[in-house]
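TA notes. Do not distribute before section.
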Amino acid sequence: VEVLDQTPKLVLAGDHADVAMIESLAQQGCTVLVLSAETCGRLPGYRVEQGADCFYSGTRAGAGDHPLFWGVAGASFLPLEQTPARGALAAMPTDARVLLGGHCRGISPFRNDWSVDIGFYGLETREPAPPLAVQQLIGSGEIIATTIEPWDRKSETHRQLLVNLLANAGVAVPPARRGATVEVKSTVPLCFDGNLDDWTNDTDDINISMYSHAQPIALTSRDAVAGRPTNDLGLSGIAYLLYDRDNLYVGGIIIANESGCCLEVTVGEHVLTIRPDQQQVELDGACAKLAQAAFARQPADTVIDARLLSLVEINKQVQKSEARYETPGHTFELGLPWQMLGLAKPPERLTGRVRLLGGDGLVLQQPAASEDDQARLELLLRDANIAHV
């Protein structure tokens, strides 16, 4: 425990936190955000439920408004198998105000015993659950008690939710480290139809699907290196890279409220420019005619990795945020022969950069760095247990 000379504005409390200190800090005007089901269960008047085989998610529908949870929606907890919510608040003090309602996903009473293979285990259900987060005013401060525990470093869902909460609290979040690594997985032949299902498959059983879930490269308003971003509805996107013996595959979705934006994917010394709304592709500034290319429009909420984007609009009249995950985006799928990149076969690794260019000089970039910086992504090509003859 570090004792500060001044009372901080925000304190995060995890497992085994001192309840007396939490209450004391709140009395002094601090906002104490409890991110722990264990600690919530020890707060006076609280009780936490943790249902067996339940996956909890949150909703702001019908809940009190609090800036801390702006941008948090059901998609913030997807996929539910990786949900950061570790239960729900089954009991709370009478003066507590609900800030985030709860849902619980389980399995219906019908269960498939596999005597007949119908392709799934059972029907999923979404049932109402107790709240996930509440506010309790104490003294001149407040306690925000929640069962959300976004601490899994391997989960992008956890990272994005934690960044959202910290940003809403006014905490400066450092950009992703420069020179980040992207795993480029091998793939079986893709279906070029503009639908990204082939890129986002999460089925481990190769008897059901041979496709792999490509690592998403998220480009959000927080990744701006030039221009003045508004929000992710204004300009954002997800890019994917896959490969096989003959091609480097580039796919993704772009969300934009204006036409003319383009995606630049730098691979080694070559720059691939994709203009989805014009269905055009350029390589090193010249028009590239690719045998494998598809463009389409697809709602963002049908692309699982769109949860990495904050597709939320602030209704200024009522000062509430409204999710817009149904917003359609431009999708694209491209197969770029290795020979066009001056390579005879897939290398073990490459360097690259992904930039999304919008109007008025707006540039979103991964890796996050200054516009003229030479930082690059390290692209590691990995064989996803698929044989290449």
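Switch to the second chain here.
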Amino acid sequence: MRFLTLAIIAFLGAHLTAQANESSCSEILVRDYYLANPPRQPKREIGLYVGSYVPTPRIFDSFAEALASGLPFRIFRTEHRDEYNGPSGVLDSLVYPPTGHLKEPLTKAFDAFKKGEIDEAGLQDRLRELSAKNLRKYTDAASLDFEAYKKEISFSAWEKLGGINIAVVADSAVGDKFHVFSDLKEFTGLLTSGNYAIVEQSKITAGRFEIDPSMKADPDFASFTENPQIQWFEQNQLNVVQSAIKLYKKVRKLPRFDPRHVPIIEMQYVDGKVYFLQYHRTRDLERADFALPEKLEEGWVEAGYVRGVTPKDGVVVDVSLRELILPSLAQEFKSRDRAAYVFDGTRDKLISKSTTHHLRRTLLMKPRVSVSVDLEKVVGQEAYNEAVESVFGFEDEGPKLLKVRVVSDGKRAFVRAEPQ
């Protein structure tokens, strides 16, 4: 009897050890809870989880609760399971009370709901149609069924806060370096697109404002620098971004997230307080095992903007000037699979064009490496001019691609032309 008991104990012990080992292996293979358990509504579900650790806006249980809350503004945020580990900027969230070009159809939809003519599912259907105006461009590029994808869209109701909308991303290759994108439109009341700052060791080492092109024709252009909110932001920017980075670090280390990952975390800064809005995956940390010298041999051109690392011998990519001049949602598809994104121009030009542009932010943060360089200097005037002409349809063969090699250690990068 004693022998049988010991055998049973040994069997159970071995079984439990195997289960523990299996659990441990699963944890090693999938360190991110939401990759293993994809949420149907990632913004809401992750917002509720993160909200137990850091401030978030109020998240409503239902549309009826949101509309009855009496808050000045509410936002009905798009939800799709892809929005955690897939594309960003494909769908448009909707604000209540409605404004802008969607004011009339949105007002009709909400009025019908409040009168009981449609239920919450019916309101979701109407909002889905209004938010998906750019969706087909993405589904076509990704070879996805448009109607099937659209049916999976839903909405969660949130309190809409004022202040400054901020997105923070830790650099994937350099420690204690962060990319901070600030949308200042609502904060300033001006047609200002925003600011992109690079923060290294608690210091802003690069940064640019972007002004909406329509404002440049405004005779009262001086109002931009004279605006008291702009002046306040310039004086307090370091404190603002440091507060945002502090929240970023805290959220990134929460148990359900992989600490090796460098997500885009969206947040809202209001009167000195920072609120979490969204966690969106980009890529994992990757450090270089080599260091580039200050100069390489003739033919290599040093990049101005650098984010990410390549192997020691670099990567070869085809650069499309059409993509650079005429960016489209098609570039969002498989952006994380790109070996390199090469922008034609200076670092300041790239930064100023990336302050609040979802697609440009994607192309900076999701490929393995992203750089800016003078492509004409890299490939030569003749090849460059041929590529420019092909963008505008002067060549029957379609857009001409420029083949280049990029090598980067995360701090410095170089680009050179490769045989076509």
